[in-house]
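for the recovery benchmark. C-alpha cells below, seq after
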C-alpha cells in the first residue's frame, strides 16, 4: 500500500481535554453519577410528549450529532451510515430469503412447499447446534448488506426513538447492524462476486422440500455439517452459475456428491471474500457486532488494519482490491504494523482513540439533547 494513503492529521488535543472533563473529581463523582442516572428518564418523558414524527426526527438528529466529525472513527462511521441512507445506496424491503421456484428448476418433482418453523424439531435437527434460533428470528429486524444484489435490506420494524436515545445515552450505537451493513457495502467492490453471492443468498430447502425461514444457502454451506439440498437449488446452480443445461431433475443419487463438490468449490472463495469484509465492518467501531468464527481471534489485526487507513472505508476498499486474499491481507497488516507508514506513535494514537469512542458518543449525545431542549443537565 502507498504510504501516502495512510497519513492523516493529528486529532486536536483540545478534544481530549473536553473528554477528560467528563470525569469528575472523586468527591463529586457519586453525586454526578446519580444526577446523570436520574436525567435519562426525564429526557425520555419529555420526548414522549412530542408527536411521533417529531420524536423520530429528533432521534435521527441526535444519532448523527453523537458521532462528532473531529473523532476520526466516529466521523467515518457517520459518513458510512449517511451513505447507506442516501440516494447513492439502493435499499430494499422485499422478503430477504427468497426461494428458487421449484416449478422452474425441478418441475418433475411436483414439490409441495412445507415450512419448518424456527425452533421446531425439524429446524433443530438441521441446525444441530450451529444456528442460534433467536438470531434467525431477529434477522428481519436487522440491516443487512446483499453481496449479490448490492443493496441494503431494511429492517421490517424501525427502532423506537426512545430506544435510540437510550442507547446513545449509554454510549452505544442503537443499531450497530446499520453501520455493519453500510461498511460491508462500501467494502464490497468486486462485481465478479455478484452472481455467486446472489445464489447463496437464496433460501435453503432440504431434499424433502422443507424450507427453513431466514436460513440461507450461505448458512447451510457454512455450517460445516453434512446436509442435502433440493434438486431445485442444485439445478438452479448449474444453470445460473455454470451455464450447464445438461442435468435436470430428478437427479440420480449417485451424482449428488460430485455436484455438491462443484457448488462447494464456488462457495469457499465467496465465503472468504464475504467473511473478511464482514469482520472488518464489525470492527470499524467496537460496537459488539459478532465476527465470523474463522476470524474471531483476529480482532487486534482487524483493529490495526483500520488504524493503518485511519478508519476510512474507501481506503480500506482500495487495499482489499490490491490484496484480495484473506491470509495475505492479514499478513500484510501484521508486517505494516511493525513499520507503519504513519509512524508507530501515530498508529498507537489512532488505536488509543478507538478506546474512547463510547465515551465520546455518550458525551456528544448529552450535548445534542441539550441543544434539542430535552436535557438540562450539565
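predicted aa per position
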Amino acid at each position: 500500500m502507498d504510504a501516502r494513503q495512510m497519513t492523516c492529521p493529528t486529532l486536536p488535543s483540545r478534544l481530549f481535554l473536553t473528554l477528560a472533563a467528563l470525569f469528575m473529581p472523586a468527591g463529586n463523582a457519586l453525586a454526578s453519577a446519580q444526577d446523570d442516572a436520574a436525567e435519562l428518564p426525564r429526557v425520555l418523558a419529555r420526548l414522549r410528549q412530542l408527536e411521533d414524527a417529531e420524536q423520530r426526527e429528533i432521534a435521527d438528529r441526535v444519532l448523527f450529532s453523537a458521532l462528532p466529525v473531529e473523532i476520526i472513527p466516529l466521523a467515518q462511521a457517520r459518513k458510512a451510515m449517511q451513505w447507506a441512507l442516501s440516494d447513492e445506496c439502493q435499499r430494499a424491503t422485499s422478503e430477504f430469503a427468497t426461494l428458487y421456484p421449484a416449478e422452474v428448476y425441478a418441475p418433475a418433482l411436483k414439490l409441495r412447499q412445507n415450512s419448518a418453523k424456527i425452533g421446531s424439531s425439524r429446524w433443530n435437527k438441521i441446525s444441530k447446534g450451529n444456528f442460534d434460533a433467536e438470531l434467525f428470528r431477529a434477522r428481519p429486524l436487522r440491516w443487512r448488506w446483499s453481496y449479490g444484489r448490492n443493496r441494503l435490506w431494511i429492517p421490517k420494524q424501525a427502532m423506537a426513538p426512545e430506544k435510540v436515545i437510550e442507547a446513545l445515552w449509554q454510549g452505544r450505537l442503537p443499531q450497530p447492524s446499520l453501520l455493519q451493513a453500510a461498511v460491508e457495502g462500501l467494502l464490497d467492490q468486486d462485481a465478479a462476486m455478484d452472481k455467486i453471492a446472489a445464489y447463496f443468498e437464496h433460501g435453503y430447502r432440504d431434499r424433502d422440500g422443507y424450507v427453513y425461514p431466514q436460513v440461507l444457502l450461505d448458512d447451510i454451506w457454512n455450517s460445516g455439517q453434512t446436509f442435502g439440498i433440493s434438486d431445485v437449488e442444485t439445478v438452479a446452480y448449474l444453470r445460473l452459475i455454470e451455464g450447464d443445461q445438461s442435468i435436470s431433475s430428478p437427479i440420480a443419487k449417485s451424482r449428488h456428491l460430485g455436484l455438491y463438490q462443484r457448488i462447494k468449490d464456488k462457495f469457499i472463495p465467496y465465503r472468504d471474500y464475504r467473511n473478511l469484509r464482514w469482520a472488518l465492518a464489525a470492527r470499524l467501531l467496537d460496537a459488539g457486532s459478532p465476527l465470523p468464527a474463522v476470524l474471531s481471534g483476529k480482532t487486534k489485526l482487524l483493529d490495526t488494519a483500520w488504524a493503518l487507513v485511519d478508519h476510512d472505508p474507501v481506503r480500506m476498499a482500495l487495499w482489499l482490491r490490491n490484496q484480495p486474499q484473506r491470509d495475505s491481507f492479514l499478513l500484510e497488516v501484521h508486517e505494516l504494523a511493525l513499520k507503519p507508514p504513519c509512524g508507530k506513535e501515530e498508529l498507537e494514537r489512532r488505536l488509543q482513540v478507538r478506546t474512547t469512542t463510547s465515551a465520546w458518543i455518550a458525551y456528544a449525545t448529552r450535548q445534542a439533547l441539550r441543544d434539542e431542549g430535552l436535557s438540562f443537565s450539565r
